[in-house]
Amino acid sequence: MTTVKIQPHEELMYTSNNLPFIHRDVSWLSFNYRVLQEAMDPTVPLFERIKFLAIYSSNLDEFFRVRMANHRNLLRVGKKTKKELEISPKQTVKEIQKIVNRQQEIFSDLFEKVIIPELEEHNIRILRRLDLNEEQKIFVENYFNDHMLPYVQPVLLVKHKIRPFLNNAALYLTLWMKPKDDPKGEDRYALVTIPSNYLPRFIQLPSAADSYDLIILDDVVRHNVSTMFPGYDILDTFSIKLTRDAELYIDDEFSGDLIEKIRSSLTKRKVGPASRFVYDREMPQELLEFLMETFELEKYDILREGRYHNNFDFFRFPDFGMSHLKNPPLPPLSYYPLESTKTFFEAIRERDHLIHVPYHSYESVIRFFEEAANDPDVTHIKITQYRVARKSRIMNALIDAVKAGKQVSVFIEVKARFDEEANLRWGEKLEKAGVSVHYSFPGVKVHAKIALIRRMENHKACFYSYLSTGNFHEETAKVYSDMGLFTAEKRLVNEVTRVFSFLETVKVPTQGFEYLLVGQFNLRTQLEYLIDQELEEAKAGRPAQIILKMNSIQDRPITEMLYEASKGGVDIKMIIRGICSPVAGIEDLSENIEAFSIVDRFLEHARIFIFHNKGNELIYLSSADWMVRNLNYRVETAFPIFDPRIKKEIRDFINIQLTDNVKARVLDKDLTNTYRKTDSDLAIRSQIETYYYIKRQLES
After folding, report:
1. Is 353 known to be catalytic?
2. What does residue 523 show for φ and ψ, rounded to 5 degrees?
3. Which of 177, 247, 469, 535 has a beta carbon 3.0–4.6 Å from 606's, enabling a disulfide?
4. CATH topology for 518-699?
5. Class of the CATH-defined domain 10-325
6. Whether the Cβ atoms of residue 596 and residue 666 lie closer than 8 Å to each other
7. Which positions ≥6 away from 697 have C-beta within 8 Å?
8. What percent of the chain has pLDDT over 70?
9. Residue ranges in the chain modelled with pLDDT below 70
10. Which residues of 209-219 are buried (b: 16+ CB within 10 A; e: fewer)?
11. What contacts 202, CB < 8 A, 6 or more positions away?
12. Helix (H, G, I), strand (E, B) or coil at 333
């Protein structure tokens, strides 16, 4: 398996006080390379490797629409801003481009030299127009005339004339041409739309029995462009794509109607400034310079890619029923204690329950709300929503609950990036049904994943809560690894009630939080206290350990505290899927820190914090990563696990991950993403081990 060293410039490695700290975006690009590694891994089934190409591309597209757009905006502001930053935007953009260009070369080589030949071994061929036989040529020409003509929109590009508008993430073909009546005349250029928004990207062609010939939509256009410009000889064609800034710039968020401002900003997202212009690396320099001038692009806007762009379309690559080229199924396991019981709330009242999706079925979460909607003793339902499934049984259950006369309150975070429109639509639908809907706070995102149900039992109000590390989203629950706790534990439900009171009234609770760690209140301070406590134990010569599992860690004060804890002798293990700004394994600083990442068939999304705590181990599950935004600018929750049985289950899960020597990569200053080795001769792939661990637990 290929290992590529992509060492960032020293400027992007150190803070002003000279402590090692990897720039968040460089670290994120290293994470996305781990995704690309999955596509490079020959042990991964072929269609799954193609899916990882799609995930890599989708991730990168969002990165440029958000993070790179921010750096480009800082670069446009000019020199004054640079003095206020530790790292200049120019240097940041330069390093990001260098890393991405290298990754794109790897991507193209992988697709052309590995994926395509392996597809051919299974009689699946991706043909270019020069490979077509006569029958296939006729098919492609008919397909173009019957399905594509209304969408291709050919435009002749003329220097210093009004330029056409390039839609965000749309695909175009640029044509390099010569007039037929003046073959020695000036080169001419044109633009043609590749209508991938309307038609499948992969078109199946007539082919021999037991074989499957495909052509990519781009090449259907290439085959037919001469008919659109009959007065020209087409010398060559090259694909391009422009990605636009996706940030919602909401002026003075603290005044006016925030919802209307978001609606207005969403319309502007499609016409935002360029954040990335990608082009076929085979394009001649003269044509590239012409396009840069035509579309007013700068050198920091442009990035080389291969022949094809929008490779996230590989999500829809046809499988022709070849299930042997996919992952073996791991069907979600029913959590019988809640899914099969006839006394749902009584089962929660008797003891806490933990589900771990996607290994467990999500049905018990859905049932939590459907039971509440239909139970005459339930009076109130409260829930936070950050990302919502397009078709959601949970949302439908809330509407049914209102119809049944219950009080339903939903807090919807409309600033959840790329889900703003969907969340607004759900908010409107819920409001029309009679649900009490509360929307975003100015300046703060609500990222907590919590729900609360009030039920009258023997003339007394009883409360039940579901607290999770992931969204209430039925679709992502099939592929995101998250944990959720059902509980009637008074220490927790009482404080969950206070969180909802704050969300609904925006008034600070008169009672604080003793057990829950809540963003905007005690999340940062309590985490810092727990780190300090482990350091004091280590200094006193007693056992001290911190185990952290999360998506990302980037907060500098927390990082410096972890360095101090490491220097003091605290054993720190970090399982970080994405951004990891702390640097592990540096002598006399972080030699007691081990950091690694697991990227596999499921997206690792659970956040787990474990502190040795003088032998009385504290385990928290959380919605929060340790990033500035989570610790400073969001309402998050971290909730303790009290049930010894569940604590053991979580600890067992963590121990499985700590022994992974198949899908774990070492996180270090060199960003090589080397596969992690352990002392075991047995190959341990933690996600598979976890599935069968849970299966054994349910069957025992």
Report:
1. no
2. -60, -55
3. 469
4. Endonuclease; Chain A (3.30.870)
5. alpha beta
6. yes
7. 649
8. 93
9. 1-16, 77-86, 247-256, 258-259, 261-271
10. eeebbbbbbbb
11. 126, 214, 215, 216, 217, 313, 316, 317, 318
12. strand
Per-residue pLDDT at 474: 95
Rg of the chain on CA atoms, in Å: 27
Q: Count Cα atoms within 13 angstroms, Cβ side, for 129.
A: 15
pLDDT in tens, 606-662: 999 999 999 999 999 999 999 999 999 999 999 999 999 999 999 999 999 999 999
Cβ neighbours of residue 581 closer than 8 Å, sequence gap 6 or more: 21, 22, 23, 24, 27, 553, 554, 556, 559
- For residue 453, the one-letter residue type is I
φ and ψ of 584, to 5 deg: -85, 155
The greatest distance separating any two alpha carbons of the chain, rounded to the nearest whole angstrom, comes to: 94
Report the pLDDT value the prediction gives residue 161, as an integer from 0 to 100: 78
Instruction: Determine how many CB atoms are found less than 10 A away from the CB of residue 587.
Output: 6
Two tokens at 543? 């056992």
* pTM over 0.70, yes/no: yes
As a whole number of angstroms, the distance between CA 466 and CA 365 comes to: 8
Specify the pLDDT at position 13. Answer: 65
- Strands (E) in 599-655, as ranges, are 603-604, 607-611, 618-622, 634-635, 637-640
Nearest-angstrom CA–CA distance, 81 and 83: 5
Q: Decide yes or no: CATH 3.90.215.10 for domain 348-512.
A: no
Same fold, 10-325 and 518-699: no
With 0-12 CB in 10 A as exposed, 13-18 as middle and 19+ as buried, what is 570? buried
44 Cβ contact partners less than 8 Å away, ≥ 6 residues apart: 38, 52
Q: What residue type is 492 in one-letter code?
A: L
Could you identify the residue written with the tokens 């992952």? Answer: 327
Coil, strand or helix: which one is 88? coil
Which sign, positive or negative, has the C-alpha torsion 576, 577, 581, 586?
A: positive
Residues β-bridged to residue 215: 127, 203
- Rounded to whole angstroms, how far apart are CA atoms 302 and 72? 12
Could you tell me which of 1, 654, 691, 698 has the C-alpha nearest to residue 327?
691
- Give the model's pLDDT for residue 440: 85
Residue 268 is predicted with a pLDDT of 63
Strand partners for 460 = 457
Rounded distance between C-alpha atoms, residue 421 and residue 266, angstroms: 8
The SS3 call for residue 159 is: coil
The answer to whether 481 and 358 are in contact (CB under 8 A) is yes
Which is the catalytic residue, given 447, 473, 605, 612? 447
Q: What is the pLDDT of residues 436-467, one digit of tens each?
A: 999 988 888 999 999 999 999 999 999 999 99
For the four alpha carbons of 630, 631, 632 and 637, in that order, the dihedral sign comes to positive
pLDDT score at 441:
83
Q: What is the pLDDT of residue 81?
A: 46
Complete DSSP assignment for 395-436? HHHHHHHHHTT-EEEEEE-TTSTT-HHHHHHHHHHHHHHT-E
Q: What ranges do the domains of the chain cover?
A: 10-325, 348-512, 518-699
29 vs 215, 319, 553, 618, CA distance in Å? 31, 29, 14, 33
Nearest to 558 by CA among 660, 410, 73, 550: 550
The CA distances from residue 286 to 182, 278, 290, 407, in Å, are 20, 16, 6, 66
Backbone angles phi, psi at 580, to 5 degrees: -135, 95
